[in-house]
Amino acid sequence: MEPFELPLAAAADAIRARRMSPVELVDSVLDRIDKTEPHLGAYVTIVAEQARRAAGEAEHEVAHGRYRGPLHGIPMGLKDLIDVSGMATTASSRVRAGHRATADSTVAARLDAAGAILLGKTHTHEFAFGLTTPQTRNAWNRDRVAGGSSGGSAVAVASGAATFALGTDTGGSIRVPAALNGVVGLKPTYGLVPRHGITSLSWSLDHVGPLTRTVEDAALVLTALTGRDPRDPASLSVPASDYRPAAGTDLTGLRIGLPRTYYFDNVDPHVEAAVRRAIGRLEALGARLVEVDIPMTRYIQATQWGLMVPEAGAYHEGSLRTVPELYQEDVRILLEASELMSAGDYVRAQRSRTLMRAEWARMLEEVDVIAAPSVPMPAVGADEETVTWPDGTVEGVSDAYVRLSAPANITGVPALTVPVGHDPAGMPIGMQLLGRPLGEPTLLRVGHAYEQTQPTRALATVA
Q1: Containing H/E element for 344?
Q2: Over the stretch 263-285, which tens digit does the pLDDT of each residue have?
Q3: Mean pLDDT, all residues of the chain
């Protein structure tokens, strides 16, 4: 196995035991980037020489007994909404031409302190306002969408062009590309990971979290990211935690909510079959299935858009009026639509969210985790704009991809997507686990237990 193929935990063990140096790992991943990047376009910027220097420094530190922990010497990508001092944060937009960050974001600073090594910035759908990331191609099939808006991060991890990456998630933008590219994606509880220094799409819906090869890897990254930062008003004060799940697959006594409504409506049959098989596997590990009704489903889409569009419009108000021509047409139209929404619309969306959070809290008193599809269909063709369901319903691709992920953003509950197979065309399928606020340990335990019963997943083969 080549170093670039190693998941984070295995690479960390090898570095700590000095069976492999950070220089070997970083060189292997950079060589992989040289092979994959012309085909996939995961990165906006690659800082190869900087990464090599950092790897040499990490090698020296480890050799002299200054090992910082499991992220020390591990190469990563950061979504290009995340500030790194001295580097551009382009948000994959012409609006940001010439931009340079003057300081590190909180998460970049914490990863640097943990010894992680930056490879570069990964593509996002422009200003994170989309679910396809058109600049980047799916790691499993270049003719399919990568998912968005953290498409570059997901594709980099899936193809071996980063050992882990960070993304942001406002309506599913970590989980959607993770599911479509066959990797793990975690949207933490709202406020658990500070967002200071990250370009916003929607203040009250934005989250930042890891994309990794395994659930254990996601836990290792999350451990380095949490902790209050007063510069983010939503940041939570929580005790420092080691989120790494314990070994073992026994889920006896755990109650898993199986949705009767919403999550299995208008879902590709291959997706439904794969997710139900995975849920059956959790039941075989000792979990008890409890059917649940998802509350207030008729209000989900209106609430999501009623919050996101006005907040995005407010953030972009100045540049939208001065340089509208620099935005891509799809994003510009969505931002302009914000001017058609009234203050009353926004207040009603906020009230709806308050009620929805209360109803979800009641539902989550009855179960420990909800298991459902991450997205209703695998990655579609890059030119496909709509999907037609068997009942004749025609749905926009972006609307379809956000549909099953938006509830976790509205309510702020944590959500984890785990690969659970492929469709007949070889495209990945993901299962989503949702839990109570600050219930990450339970989600990670369940996802890790499932993962241990499955064969080791291979990286995407890039032609």
Answers
A1: helix 343-366
A2: 999 999 999 999 999 999 999 99
A3: 97
Task: Find all residues with CB under 8 Å of 372, minimum gap 6, and list them.
Answer: 259, 263, 264, 275, 404, 431, 432, 434
- Report the side by side order of strands in the sheet with 117-122: 43-46, 117-122, 75-79, 164-169, 207-212, 184-187, 415-422, 428-435, 369-373, 255-259, 288-292
CB distance 401 to 432 below 8 Å: no
The residue annotated as part of the active site, out of 93, 153, 173, 200, is 173
- Check 79, 153, 200, 235 and give the catalytic one: 79
Per DSSP bridges, beta strands 75-79 and 164-169 are: parallel
Query: What's the rounded Cα separation, in Å, for the pair 282 and 251?
Result: 7
Which member of 93, 105, 149, 398 is catalytic?
149
Separation between Cα atoms, residue 260 and residue 294, nearest integer Å: 7
Residue 240, number of CB atoms within 10 A of its CB: 7
CA 189-75-427 angle, 5° bins: 65
Q: How far apart are CA 260 and CA 364, in angstroms?
A: 15
DSSP 229-243: -TTSTT---------
Q: Do 86 and 101 touch, CB atoms closer than 8 A?
A: yes
ω into 398 cis (within 30 of 0): no
What's the full length of the chain, in residues? 463
- Identity of the amino acid at 384: E
**Whole-number pLDDT of residue 212:** 98
Catalytic-residue membership of 149: yes
Instruction: List pLDDT tens digits, range 126-182.
Output: 999 999 999 999 999 999 999 999 999 999 999 999 999 999 999 999 999 999 999
Q: What is the pTM of this model?
A: 0.97
Burial of 4 (0-12, 13-18, 19+ CB in 10 A): buried
Q: Three-state SS for 185?
A: strand
Calpha distance 271→374 (Å, rounded): 9
Reference 410, options 207, 219, 262; nearest CA is 207
- Exposed / middle / buried, residue 393 (Cβ in 10 Å: 0-12, 13-18, 19+): exposed
Burial class (CB in 10 A: 0-12, 13-18, 19+), 203: middle
Tokens of 397: 């691709």
Q: Collapsing DSSP states into helix, strand and coil, what is residue 17?
A: coil
- Determine whether 173 is an active site residue: yes
CATH architecture of 3-252: Alpha-Beta Complex (3.90)
Q: How many CA atoms lie within 13 A of 51 on its CB side?
A: 26
